[in-house]
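Box S2. Input/output pair 1.
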Amino acid sequence: MTQGPIDLIRLTGEGNSVVLRITGRETRRGARTTDVLTSEFVVDTPFVSGTLNAWLFPADLTEWQECLDALDAGQAITWRDAARGPALSIERDDTEERLRVTIRDNATTLTTVTVTVPLADTWFDDAYDRLEQAWKTWPSTEDH
């Protein structure tokens, strides 16, 4: 990997944080050769902390773009719900300007964690910039 990790998702505030950090790229060989991004969900609160590794595929980045658009329009989202591995759900509470973020791992740890973080005014612009940085750093052969 020529560049350091990229935080694709970064939700922080009031002592709580949920981060999805892209840590590198691998080529998986099998019936079909596939490029994947290695990543880790990092949750840190005064009550609970943990890390969970995950692989991301180009389709996951495309789906994240769609989820950002839906969130920006005020909708609740679930990202990677059909994927084997952790899923991320985010609900907006516009009255308190907060996000309720849930990471659910039904594949390995059978654990669900929900964290509430404030929604900063600049969060959406920052989130779209992080996604674009991920596409530029690890371009796929598929269109996005």
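Box S3. Input/output pair 2.
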Amino acid sequence: MTSTVTTPSREDSDESSRKGARSPWVGFIVRRTGSLILSLWLIATLIFFLSRAIGGDAVRAAAGVTATPEYVAARRAELGLDDPLLEQYGRFIERIVTFDFGESISTGNSVAVEIAARLPYTVQLGLYAFLLAMLVSIPLGIWMAVRTENGRGERTNAAFNAISGFFASIPDFLIAISLVMIFAVGLRWLPAAGGEGVTAFILPVLTMSLGLIAVLSRLMKAETTRVLREDYTRTARANNLPPRVVLFRHVLPNVMTATLTYSGMMLASLMGGAIITETVFGWPGIGNLFVKSIAVYDYPLLEGLVIIIATFSLVATFIVDLILAKVDPKSLIRSS
């Protein structure tokens, strides 16, 4: 009796290879998507119960002191605010699946309409701050690493560490107040609030970007210093390659991974920073609307704003993770 050994065909091997190549990406995307959905659910649940714990009567605040008790009671019943808390929570979760946040108690308009009217202002402000931070911090950090290599430029290094450490450690509202006092009140070069054209953006954008520039430039300096000490960089220099070739071929590709990683956190922090910046400068974005929704106990508006901000931050981080996995396949393998 003879035994037959079946040899896998080339097609079977190719198919197995393709499945094996796809599996890290499939697992990566499934895990990241699951984490994103879970995070959104936790944030939505937290903001729902916290908004109810704030206290206050949103209907009374919106109707004013002249509203009769009968009107307030009827309005509360219409909005379902007298229903059991878990019943309200169930309706809330059902609505947010379709991003239907209900009606704003303070304005009577759809929450989606209120947010859509303000969101472009915040996106524009955040985009300018993000671009400014990237355009300044990346070349600054690389230049500082090259300038202070092998112990050179001690005074320059000390000044950089002191200034960047200062701006990285102070909160945005202090930066905003300082900029207003210097450039709006003292020098009267720029408007403290409002204004038209480019001048209206300068102080808010600086407020949101200075701290990011400080942190990212320090990160870029540290990463560039590390790459300059690597063997492949030393070899390139030993072969008398021009400094520009060494920079663009060996240094930049290896430091951009850290930049991509931090850029996701930058986008998330910009949304949080917009709340403070827009309040100080009277900017008509969702950050300003967020503060007003708390002041008048507008639960639906507050919940909608938090979920929109959280969704933007989580999706931005998700996209950055995908780009990072494409640029650096090792991160994809490590996550698997």
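Caption for Box S3: Residues 118-331 form a domain with the MetI-like fold fold (CATH 1.10.3720.10). The chain has a mean pLDDT of 84.
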